[in-house]
Amino acid sequence: MLEERETNTVPDSGDLTSIYILKEYQGIGLGKELLKSMFFRFSSLGYQKIFVNVLEDNKARYFYEYYGAHLCKSVQIKIGGKVLNELIYEWDNIDGVLARLTKTN
Among 65, 66, 84, which Cα is nearest to 74's? Predict the structure, then answer.
């Protein structure tokens, strides 16, 4: 069943819409720093949950999973006439994500 893209209506929550990093700059910590900055902002806004929608074939989903996002739903959407699987992830522990992002390795 195809679904329209949902609008987040969950109280005290926000959406991370996308992080785009050119391939030549991937793997050097820029994504982590951007995510950390966003989660500090989400925390300051009092958000309890953060959602991100990722196409199933997008390897960025593993980045989000590494930082604690949990798959909560899968839907089929249509973009440019093509049916795609979209995964909806949720972070429900902002402090836990920040702890992981600020941990020194």
Answer: 84
Contacts of 19 (CB under 8 A, 6+ apart): 31, 34, 35, 60
CA distance 89 to 29: 21
Alpha-carbon gap, residue 54 to 28, rounded angstroms: 21
Closest by Cα among 68, 103, 73, 101 to 87 = 73
Which residue ranges form the domains of the chain, and what is each CATH number? 13-102 (3.40.630.30)
Tokens 């006439």 map to which residue? 81
> Rounded mean pLDDT of 26-32?
92
- The average confidence (pLDDT) of the chain is 89
**61/38 Cα distance (integer angstroms):** 17
pLDDT at res. 82: 93
pLDDT of residue 4: 53
